[in-house]
């Protein structure tokens, strides 16, 4: 496994691989502090791609002024162990000044999709994501890029950007990895106190309840699902709900009619939520 810090070295390495191989390049962009969720993306990339490239970059552009950029957990040594175990070929770890040597005057902004959910709660967040992912796609030039459905809105935004800008990369969405108790794995889970971590189980439980409800009823409304999920989350005293939404996926359009198993059933819809426990904002979702 090779660890690369500079854009020039990365480009040279990818060029040389392309010259000598006709296998695909798979790419997994992350902010590091890797856990099994990230490892599952790396394993998928290892299965599908000839060369597996992992990036670790805590991207300042996607954090708001009062968010946790400075405090975001970092542990490169441990990350390299996870990467090695997953069979990664190249780890790209640029410094902020390598990615942004001068102030940016270009911004990649996906409209529409980003006006809801985390886009509404975190203004500018998806501009930062789309801009850095676009830069990374230009640097790595992957055939496939692997993204977790933990961040389902991010997957939709990146897919839209790739379609709109004809970026020649296949976006591969990967399932959410959870702790055995249901808590969706996240680098930010380390912020949780023992109590908060216990109460955060209401998130995955509420989605499970919604799933059971959907399976038990032939017709229901998005409002009913939203109420059911909201009510269960509110049973945790430490939970402060940012949003609970039921929308079509991946368009993230509101669902006008009741949802039923008949032919007017949307192909797919998402129950998405963001909830704060103390200072920690957690997201989770279920796509049905
Ligand atoms: P992050 O380091 O949080 O920016 O995440 C990097 C990638 O890992 C994103 O595509 C995330 O969606 C994905 N990811 C994070 N947590 C999980 C999880 N629990 N299950 C699956 N993918 C995840």
Structural class category: alpha/beta
Regions with pLDDT < 50 over 5+ consecutive residues? none
The figure for the number of domains is 2
Number of E-type strands:
11
Helix content: 25-40%
The SSE order reads EHEHEHEHHHEHEHHEHEEEE
For the largest beta-sheet, the strand count, sense and barrel status come to: 6 strands, parallel
Attached small molecules: adenosine monophosphate
| Beginning-to-end CA distance, first to last residue | 38 Å
Please tell me the CATH architecture of the largest domain by its name: 3-Layer(aba) Sandwich
Taking Cα atoms only, what radius of gyration do you get, to the nearest Å? 19 Å
What is the count of DSSP helices, taking H or I runs of 4+ residues? 10
In spatial order, strands of the major sheet run 1-4-3-2-5-6
**Mean pLDDT level:** 96
Specify the overall morphology: globular
Would you spell out the secondary-structure blueprint of this structure?
Elements: E1 2-4, H1 7-20, E2 25-30, H2 36-48, E3 51-56, H3 76-85, E4 90-92, H4 96-99, H5 117-121, H6 125-140, E5 144-148, H7 152-164, E6 170-174, H8 194-199, H9 201-216, E7 219-220, H10 222-234, E8 239-248, E9 259-260, E10 269-277, E11 280-287
Parallel strand pairs: 1-4, 2-3, 2-5, 3-4, 5-6
Antiparallel strand pairs: 7-9, 8-10, 10-11
Helix pairs in contact: 6-7, 9-10
Subunit structure: Homodimer.
Pathway: Cofactor biosynthesis; (R)-pantothenate biosynthesis; (R)-pantothenate from (R)-pantoate and beta-alanine: step 1/1
Binding site for beta-alanine: 62
């Amino acid at each position: 496994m090779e660890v690369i810090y500079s854009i020039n070295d990365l480009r040279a390495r990818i060029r040389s691989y392309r010259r000598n191989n006709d296998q695909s390049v798979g790419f997994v962009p992350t902010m590091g502090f890797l856990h099994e969720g990230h490892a599952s993306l790396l394993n998928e990339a290892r299965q599908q791609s000839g060369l597996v490239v992992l990036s670790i970059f805590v991207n300042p552009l996607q954090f708001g002024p009062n968010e946790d950029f400075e405090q975001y957990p970092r542990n490169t040594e441990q990350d390299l162990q996870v990467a090695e175990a997953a069979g990664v070929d190249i780890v790209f770890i640029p410094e902020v000044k390598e990615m942004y040597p001068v102030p940016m005057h270009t911004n990649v902004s996906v409209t529409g999709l980003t006006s809801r959910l985390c886009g509404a709660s975190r203004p500018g967040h998806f501009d930062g994501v789309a801009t850095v992912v676009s830069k990374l796609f230009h640097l790595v030039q992957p055939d496939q890029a692997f993204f977790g459905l933990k961040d389902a809105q991010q997957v939709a935004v990146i897919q839209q950007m790739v379609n709109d800008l004809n970026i020649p990369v296949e976006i591969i969405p990967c399932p959410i990895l959870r702790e055995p108790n249901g808590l969706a794995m996240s680098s930010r889970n380390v912020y949780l106190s023992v109590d908060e971590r216990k109460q955060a189980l209401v998130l995955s439980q509420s989605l499970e309840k919604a799933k059971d409800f959907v399976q038990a009823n032939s017709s229901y409304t998005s409002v009913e699902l939203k109420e059911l999920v909201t009510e269960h989350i509110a049973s945790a005293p430490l939970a402060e709900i940012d949003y609970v939404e039921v929308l079509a996926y991946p368009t993230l359009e509101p669902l006008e009619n009741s949802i039923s198993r008949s032919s007017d059933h949307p192909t797919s819809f998402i129950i998405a939520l963001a909830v704060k426990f103390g200072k920690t904002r957690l997201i989770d979702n279920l796509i049905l």
